[in-house]
């Protein structure tokens, strides 16, 4: 029987020959050796597959497939199905593990602690900034943990499902929200840098469908428990203002009946206020902040917050 490794590293690739060597070198250099890697390629036409074959020929822990897919999250779902490891880690082809001790450092957490999801930090490239500490549910609904900082128990995907491929940019954020909102998912943070994360990829883009169907309904669940008055701090109100704006909500019909039904009056008033503002002005930084403050005062004076 073939040995099942402790960790499966999954690397989606497409036209990745400029960066892939560094990612693979960071993996091969690990002091911890009980891992396998799957490169999930989307029929690259550059030199990506030449690099993959070279590394796979030199290390029998490295495997690959190259076939059509429906984007990076479809490739990641495919990798989960192929993986044999007890734990899953997703590495971008333009990212790399932070140093040679990363996998060994987390190995102890995998074996010692009864967790489903363990995460640390990433180093943002080219900023040289560490992102972003420990997350609560509320923080996860404002910003996402980088998936390059996370290790998932493989069984977790059978419990909560995989990546929603309807979400082209933020399916990883959707997955993390599902984990944080499920009280049975055991999550642990470790103050260690896992990887260097290359900024400016697909995750830098807005994902309107996710914001409308995933993020806003999830935020409404938390807001319902907290009540409208929890919107009174301006930074909280501003966070909601940005989500509605970035979701390009130009009608309550954009959000669906169930979402609107759960929406408190303060947020409905915010949406109505944004609908009166031309989209171009709404996305202009200073103007958007000015309009946000007017909307805030409107809700405050109406006693909604």
Can you walk through the features of this model?
- By secondary structure, this protein is α/β, with parallel strands linked by helices.
- It folds into 2 domains: 7-204, Alpha-Beta Complex (Spore Coat Polysaccharide Biosynthesis Protein SpsA, Chain A); 208-301, no CATH class.
- 44% of the residues lie in helices and 17% in strands.
- It has helices spanning 20-28, 48-58, 72-82, 102-112, 137-140, 155-160, 171-181, 208-226, 234-246, 257-262, 265-275, 279-282, 285-301, and strands at residues 7-13, 35-41, 62-66, 87-90, 96-97, 117-125, 129-131, 150-153, 187-198.
- β6 (117-125) and β7 form a beta hairpin.
- The longest helix is centred in the C-terminal third of the chain and has 19 residues, at 208-226.
Question: What keywords describe this structure?
Answer:
305 residues; nine-stranded mixed β-sheet; elongated; alpha/beta; 13 helices; 17% strand; Spore Coat Polysaccharide Biosynthesis Protein SpsA, Chain A
Examine the coordinates and then state which fold CATH places here, giving the name of the CATH topology of the largest domain.
Spore Coat Polysaccharide Biosynthesis Protein SpsA, Chain A
The portion of residues assigned to helices is 40-55%
CATH fourth-tier homologous superfamily of the largest domain: Spore Coat Polysaccharide Biosynthesis Protein SpsA, Chain A
Radius of gyration equals 21 Å
Q: Which residues form runs of ≥5 with pLDDT under 50?
A: none
**Average pLDDT metric:** 94
Secondary-structure element order, as H and E?
Answer: EHEHEHEEHEEHEHHEHHHHHH
Shape: elongated
CATH architecture tag of the largest domain: Alpha-Beta Complex
**Count of discrete domains:** 2
Number of strands: 9
- Structural class by sheet pairing and helices: alpha/beta
Which percent range describes the beta-strand content?
15-25%
Biggest β-sheet description: 9 strands, mixed
Number of helical elements: 13
CATH level-1 class of the largest domain: Alpha Beta
Span between termini: 62 Å
